[in-house]
Amino acid sequence: MPLARRTDLGDSNYAGLEVDVCHDLQRCLKETLEGGFDFLVTPLAHPRHRRPAPSARDPSAPTPAPFARSDLLLNSTQWSSQVVGKTSPWIDADSVSAPMRRDSEAALRQELMWAAHLSLHAVLLPTPSLKAANYARIVNQFLTALSSTALWVRIPVVSAEVEAAEANGGDGAAEALAKQIDPCTRRRAHDPFERWANLRAMCEGHPQLSACLEVGASLPPAAELRRWVGEPVKAVVLNADAFITNKRGFPVLPKRHQEFITTMLQKNVQVVLRWSGDGDKAYVVYLFRKIDAVSEQELVESGYRDYLQAPLQPLMDNLESATYETFEKDASKYIQYEEAVHACLVDRVRDADAAAGKVTVLMVVGAGRGPLVRASLRASDRCGRKMKVYAVEKNPNAVITLQSLVESEGWEDRVTIVASDMRSWDFEEKADVLVSELLGSFGDNELSPECLDGAQRFLKEGGVSIPQSYTSYLAPMTSSKLWNDAKAYGDLAHMETPYVVKLHRYSLIADPEEVFTFHHPNEDKVIDNNRYEKLLFKRAPDAAAATMHGFAGYFDAKLYEGPAGKVHCSIYPPTHTMGPTGEPMFSWFPIYFPLRTPVHVPAGTNVEAHCWRCVGPSKVWYEWAVTAPEVGPVHNVNGRSYWVGL
Amino acid sequence: MPLARRTDLGDSNYAGLEVDVCHDLQRCLKETLEGGFDFLVTPLAHPRHRRPAPSARDPSAPTPAPFARSDLLLNSTQWSSQVVGKTSPWIDADSVSAPMRRDSEAALRQELMWAAHLSLHAVLLPTPSLKAANYARIVNQFLTALSSTALWVRIPVVSAEVEAAEANGGDGAAEALAKQIDPCTRRRAHDPFERWANLRAMCEGHPQLSACLEVGASLPPAAELRRWVGEPVKAVVLNADAFITNKRGFPVLPKRHQEFITTMLQKNVQVVLRWSGDGDKAYVVYLFRKIDAVSEQELVESGYRDYLQAPLQPLMDNLESATYETFEKDASKYIQYEEAVHACLVDRVRDADAAAGKVTVLMVVGAGRGPLVRASLRASDRCGRKMKVYAVEKNPNAVITLQSLVESEGWEDRVTIVASDMRSWDFEEKADVLVSELLGSFGDNELSPECLDGAQRFLKEGGVSIPQSYTSYLAPMTSSKLWNDAKAYGDLAHMETPYVVKLHRYSLIADPEEVFTFHHPNEDKVIDNNRYEKLLFKRAPDAAAATMHGFAGYFDAKLYEGPAGKVHCSIYPPTHTMGPTGEPMFSWFPIYFPLRTPVHVPAGTNVEAHCWRCVGPSKVWYEWAVTAPEVGPVHNVNGRSYWVGL
């Protein structure tokens, strides 16, 4: 029975129970469901010992007893939705003993085939060793053969060796162990993440291969836990020793455990209990219900989570009505613009001049359906500075809305509509203030620089552009979901396109760094909007290993800064603009620059990358490359995969 | 004028002259050609200083003077075949100064475009810095835009810093410098190879991007020089300081220099002199002519150099007459078989039994057009052991040849022809000796194990198979030509297929390691020809960095070992079988297992790899993967790209 009926938390509504032995499957499943769980994690094979591989079996010996229960015990719906199979614990496909390896290989294949035959939703596989090449190959063969059964690999959040060292009270010993490096692969031998990363690399991040995190008594540092959010974690197994007993004698999770489980539940990760003590399921339900209810906006956004959108081409295409509507809903953005215009008016027009009736000419370029006109007029009203507004808009459909707005609001004597492209329009009157909202998620990626360079000819000497400047930011990130979704298109172009994405299952590997900055109006003799930045992402010497799937991009725009106020509009996390009700501005999602091949970032290693903004006669594009920890190819050479038309 | 008329050495017939200044291009070229050179390496632009980028130029200023000479100075054939352009020496596209970078970028693009306009065969580019990301991007943009002009990048074999330290007599200082590691990329900062490897990685090994090695007074250790053979080196520039003066006052190269130049000339690399002293061209002609004349067999083989051949499918297809002919030409192979049969007969049949007329039954499985029958009969005649031969052959075309051979040689009473597939044939008489030549370049890759497992039912208890066993070997290798040729097919399948190749432009990164061994007859109760081997290729702690493009594969077959002799047949380099005239056996070229993505192997780092031989109901295939220095994907999963049909 689901933990709750929350549509925003998807899979995590369902909880499972893992057992190590199950003599009577039907009864075991019945009890599991009656206990409130949604599925049972149970061994695929009889709990017997090692079976010889067919090739090692004496052909004259009688046929061996079946290794598993009959598929008739449950119906196909039960098999596929209520049972997750576990492979036999004795299997070791990378054993140094060749006969053991051969028997293990045969048994692992046999059990996987059986699970596929039963159409199980998933099979839970054992923790691989650091270099489980043979295990990886068998898993990869199964995945590549296109079964619908997913594979979950059990990965402890802390290695058994480190956990044992911690339990022995040797904190220093545990730490030393955690930092040991494998001499051949140069990876931290006791960081379970490395085992997962190796396995995944050998299987090329197959979308049906996921991690199942096992949580016991100890948890690693927060930063190490955070890595997993960007990884394809499907479930968390809570072992009995993860629980402590509270004052009233009930089993509860320690605070950090609670926080981690809550985070994972919010990321659609299912919980599986490996202990059927009293009240445990109720406790998971309790944790789940404790997760804050989401706002209406968040609910809307949950549909966009980790969904790859191609960036807008605002110069080449006209926006649709629904797009305008979505953006106009973002009150926080227009409040910032109102504040910016307000501060700008106060700074430019002294009180005396205002009283004398001085009129400020304000030009909105790209007026759309009018939100910036409205915000500007509100600012004018608030500070008592008279204003004449030109609303320039090239989209004839939006002009219709604009005209009826002016009429319905009675703005006829204050607002002049100019139905024209700001790049080609020719006008006699010059403006004091040029207001625009041409920024994309990466600041300059919707060609705000090129548009405003063209429009600034309407600006008086000493006139102000709102925004005055904007800066883009990039941060290396783990995001296996996004990478796999781009990969699924099966071509180069989709691996070299930046996408607008509501990031959800991701984790940053380092803090964002500044990339490009543009100032308006641009006073340079010859304007050059080409840019190049070399980025060094410094990581702490004890930072854990992580996998880099690309970069998250943001922007921070200085709308206006002057004596009367400093107003920014930002999706750069440290300065993200918040709305009046404390909700973050939502008009822009971050941008995702993918890497064609994921890059392993070893523990304590910095990331070095390069980003270029290239301007051609008819298009603008980015190129990007990583040069540390490894040197990789330049992406999107000559804008071959992605560009924005001028 | 070419150095000689040797068809086996291709491009290296042509030598060039590099000049730093050339006031009168026509005269300069004329003198170069009169001096016996074939082409001139000369600056593309006037030898003036930095030109401002168009974006930094005052638009009101007069149009600047042209940066280059008129294209009318030479005709188009002269431009394209007799001139290689050099870019301006002041260009630094990765300068920390943004204006310098901008001007450099503009100038570099301008000069590249000019070279493309002139249809120059190549442009010689300056040595990149260790992390020349911006340089790499411009080069990559040019390459991706599909110009026919090749780019040669000047790479000194010893970095200027190390050479200076050596010149100062500080041998320890030079060595310490050579081993310095860049903190960010973890590469040896003063190994020029690293600069090349980084640039090439950013450009994804574009086939039009090559290295031009610059040789001065000092040379690095032999192993470091050897790396370059597998890299796309197009030319070697000999600086004036590479020469010393001999007793007679003539400029000559030191011995190690001579050896290096000779090696490169043999690998089709052109020589360019950067010094026009007396007699220098004559000296290069002398070195070139000194290269040993090749044998007829080598001349035939030169057409196969670095040419990718798909391995044979001998079970599914019948061989063609020409293929039989090629193999039969290899006397050394059949001499080994004759020796093996001879030793085997001597061991099995005592002199007394031989005198008593004891007959040995020998079965040739896969007799083809009869060379093994002939070799066996020769052995029998030599040692006076009577023999009855069954020649089993499934190819009806070969059987015709076999029949006429038996007739013409008068073997009717000694040889019985069986026109049948050894796997399905049913026969009453059992053999003492089973002789076959079913080995592929990687030993078991043409399914010798499966064929002989089937054929051993004709063998008496205690009977002998010739070969008795065989072992395959693999070694990691640099081979950019082969990798690019496989890549050029543009699909996954060609990057996961092992090819039979006459290796030429390659260098091994570590010594070969043993992979799989098969013994015949196979006495196992249940025969299992699946194999898995984990391979650790150890490299010396001071081994230089290299790029791994895949693995070279070999085999060593034990034809027969017994008291009367040990006879092998091998293409494994340390034991390569040599013929009676001292020429190596040529029936088998090595096999090349490609890697989908080249792997950088840092200095002093080991390579770890895995190889599997997988046997399915109807096919046999290999899978392979690298797990150190980096963990990479499993290749050819489930035999999706390459397999041999049973």
UniProtKB/TrEMBL annotation, chains A, B:
Q: Which InterPro entries match?
A: Arg_MeTrfase, Arg_MeTrfase_PRMT5, PRMT5, PRMT5_C, PRMT5_TIM, SAM-dependent_MTases_sf
Q: Which Pfam families match?
A: PRMT5, PRMT5_C, PRMT5_TIM
According to UniProt, residues marked as the site described as Critical for specifying symmetric addition of methyl groups are F327
Stretches assigned to coiled coil: none
Molecular-function GO terms, alphabetical: protein-arginine N-methyltransferase activity
Listed GO cellular component terms?
Answer: cytosol; nucleus
Residue ranges of domain PRMT5 oligomerisation in the record: 469-644
SUPFAM superfamilies registered for this protein in UniProt: S-adenosyl-L-methionine-dependent methyltransferases
Q: Where is the active site?
A: E437, E446
Q: Which PROSITE patterns does the protein's record reference?
A: SAM_MT_PRMT
- Please list the residues that bind S-adenosyl-L-methionine: Y324, K333, Y334, E393, D421, M422
The organism's place on the tree of life at top rank: Eukaryota
The UniProt record lists the PRMT5 arginine-N-methyltransferase domain at: 296-466
Keywords of this entry = Methyltransferase, S-adenosyl-L-methionine, Transferase
> Among the record's GO biological process terms, what is one?
regulation of DNA-templated transcription
Region Disordered: what ranges? 47-67
Q: Which family does it belong to?
A: Belongs to the class I-like SAM-binding methyltransferase superfamily.
Name the UniProt record assigns to this protein: Protein arginine N-methyltransferase
